[in-house]
Specification:
- This protein is of the alpha+beta class.
- It is built from four helices and 15 strands.
- The longest helix is centred in the first third of the chain and has 22 residues.
- It is globular.
- The relative contact order is 0.19.
Length: 252
């Protein structure tokens, strides 16, 4: 399928959606989350989205029942908010898509809850650094594999692993568009990046092996070996010169 190209107006709208995500993440970073149920956090996010005149892109997407994905510790992504309480030492991952005036921005962040271990802290920092490297490579004339290589090199040089079964993707009027963006150098289509492409780059990094499993709820993806996982994601627009981070979760 062809890769959708966005015009300047579309990118501006996606940046507004991205700024709503940024504001939500900024607010969450200042909250005392210890003891809060993940469903309570989801409901708080949902109210904020509606107050900003937007909608939750994940809600009812392929049947997903909540407004954002909230995953804990060994859960990689797609955690369903429920009655679990957030605890000191947790790695809390929130993946959030916002739809505004017909366009979607998508981003994720890992939050350290209270006092976390040194290994967990390093895992977070390496994942964030891998995202930075991927963003650096997201420019006109490069290929998808340049993004993949940047992410994979940072992760594996630090002794961690990148999830193979889940990837980044294009984003725009649909939550998942072409192209597919692996976090490792893979065989298959390797298109050249062109101005107007908008992509979600999202390293999912495990402390142990890269293999994952789907939990019994049919949604939550966890590490197969029970090791910790970290997830950061930004929505990036490819420009004539360089790129624009539309969600700005990670400064570059």
């Amino acid at each position: 399928m062809p890769i959708p190209i966005k015009d300047e107006e579309a990118i501006k709208i996606m940046a507004i959606a991205g700024n709503i995500i940024l504001d939500i993440f900024s607010e969450i970073s200042k909250m005392d989350l210890i003891g809060m149920k993940t469903i309570e956090l989801n409901d708080h996010v949902d109210i904020t989205i509606k107050d900003r005149g937007a909608s939750a892109a994940f809600l009812n997407y392929r049947g997903f029942p909540k407004s954002c994905c909230i995953s804990l510790n060994d859960e990689v992504v797609h955690g369903i908010p429920d009655g679990r309480r957030i605890a000191n030492g947790d790695l809390l991952k929130i993946d959030l898509g916002i739809k505004y005036q017909g366009y979607i921005a998508d981003a994720a962040r890992t939050f350290a809850i209270g006092e976390i271990s040194k290994d967990a802290r390093k895992l977070m920092e390496v994942t964030k650094e891998a995202l930075r490297e991927g963003i650096k490579a997201a420019k006109k004339g490069n290929r998808i594999s340049d993004i993949s290589r940047g992410v994979q090199t940072i992760v594996e040089s630090n002794g961690f692993s990148v999830v193979r079964e889940l990837t980044g993707h294009g984003v725009g009027q649909a939550l998942h568009e072409e192209p597919v963006i692996p976090n490792f150098v893979a065989e298959g289509p390797n298109p050249v990046l062109s101005p107007g492409m908008v992509i979600a780059i999202e390293p999912m990094v495990n402390r142990g092996d890269y293999q994952v499993k789907t939990e019994s709820n049919g949604w939550t993806i966890s590490t197969r070996d029970g090791s910790l996982s970290s997830h950061f994601e930004d929505t990036i627009a490819i420009l004539e010169k360089g790129n624009m981070n539309l969600t700005r979760v990670v400064e570059n």
